[in-house]
Amino acid sequence: MRRNTPSPNQVSAGTVMAGAIVILLIVGVFSSITIVQPGEVGIVIRLGAAQEKPLGEGIHFIVPVITQVEKLNVRVQKAPVETEAASQDLQVVKATIVVNYRVEKTQAVELYRELGRHYLENIIEPAIQESFKADAAKYTAEELITERAKVSADFLKSISTRLEPRGVVVEAVNITSFDFSEDFKQAIEQKVIEEQAVKKAENELERIKVEADQAEAKAKGEAAAILEKAQAEAEALELKKEFATMELIWLTAVEKWDGILPTHIFGAPPVPVFESGVRSQESGVRSQQ
What we know:
By secondary structure, the chain is an alpha+beta fold.
C-alpha cells in the first residue's frame, strides 16, 4: 500500500494556519490585559458606554474588542494662565496665575463623560479667568499689590467654588506677577518716593528730638553737679565758721608757714623787722645804764 504523503503546499498551509492561530492567541491575551500606572485611573468603556467604576492602579483583565480603557491623570498638575481684568479703580491689570489642581478619583468617570480629556481648556482655564476678573474688581490696583496674600486667598476660594463640583480639586493658587499701565506704574513710583521722603523727614525729626533730650539731660546733670558742689562747699564753710577759734587760726597759719621770717611788719608805714629789733635792744641798754 502506498502512504498518502502531504504535499509541500499542504504542509505550508498548515504551518501558516498554526502560526496564525498562535498569533491570534497571543494578541488576544495581550488585548485582554491593561495596566493602570500609579497616579492614573482607568475609565472603562464597554460598547461605547463609560462604566461607573474606574480601575485603580495595577494589572486588569478586560474583554477585548468590546472594551477599551482610557487612562486619566489624577496627579497634581499645573495650569499656568495669563489673564487680564479691571480693578475697582478701573486700572487694567494683567496677571500670570498658576493653579495647582488634581482630578478627584471618585468623579473621574463623570468628568470624562462630560469633557473627555479636554477638561483643562474647557473648564479650568475659563474658571481661572472668570474668577480673577470677579475678584480683581473688589480691589483697587494698589490693593492688589499691597494685599496680595488676601487677594490670593479670595481667588483660591472663588475658583474652588467653580471647579470642585465638576470633580477638579484646587490645591494651591500662585499669582506670579501683576502688570499695570505705564502711567499707573509711574504714579506708584512717585508715591513711593514721596513716602520715603516723609519717612526720612520723620526720622530726622526724631533724631533731633533725641539729641535735644540728651543735651537737656546732660545740662541738667551738670547743673545738678555744680549745685551739689556749691552746697557742699557752703556747708563746709559754715562748719569752719562754727568751729573757728584763735588757736585754730594760729595752727592753720603755722601749718602753712614756710619757715622764713617776714622782713617787714605791715602797718602805717611798714616797719622793717630788723630796725625795730635793734632799737628795742638799744633802748633796753640805755635803761640799764
